[in-house]
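All the exercises in this workshop are built on plain-text protein records. The record below serves as our worked example for the rest of this section.
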Amino acid sequence: MPEQHRLAYPALFVAILAVSFASIFIRWSDADPLVIAGYRMLFASLILAPFAFHERKDAVPMDRRTIGSVVLTGVVLAVHFFAFISSLRYTSVASSTLLVNFHPLIVGAASVLILKESSKRTVVGVTIGFVGVAVIALTGLGTGESFGNALALLGGVMAALYILAGRMLRRTLGIFTYAFSVYLTAAVVLLASAVINGVSLWPYPTEELLIFLALAVVCTIFGHTIYNWSLKYLTAPVISTSLLGEPILASLLALVLLGEVPPWTVVLAAPLVLVGVGLTALDRKR
């Protein structure tokens, strides 16, 4: 087995553990979601810049189509992070992370409704999963909590597009080139949006800057970047089912570090989402 394939599984575990801390860091920050997400992406891209430039030194220049795809992916990632971070202002960590990671159900539903792939396991998984998603999304209907759940759902849709784009672009782009380009694009979109909306970009206390840096290093470099690296070496079912680790770990961390107990409706619906995603993901082909 090639060295990269042997490292892919432990790398994926590290990535899931790292991204699980994102909700905690975000809850500790008082900054605007656009600022949190923008600085997270900016710091991450600056850290990766020298590695990306070294990787591109003798590489063939990207064509216009690839550049356009990278920019579009960066915009999608910017929307994902803004929606996810904003959702945590209104709803629980458990609800937010479950809904942000429901995108394998979207893929499964598309395979049944559009591609006419009527696998019994996929149909059952999508049905069970969407029942759980509906219960969580409707929790606190008419309140700020339901608004937060809607934002998390939006973040989940954007995550599906981001992962799909990553699997395609990583076929031709090195990990540092891909991550740096996408993160920098997202940073520009988010920070420009903050300026347009009259949100101050400076100054921020040291505690806030450390949170931004922690999000960049722990959750983005050791989380998203390692996750994107593993996309090239693991199958779709492994990638999709691994995402179930984030809502579980994040909810446990929120319980221990934030003293946050999820609403009873979320506790009852969470197993439905997890089982649904698991069944759907395991039925996907390579």
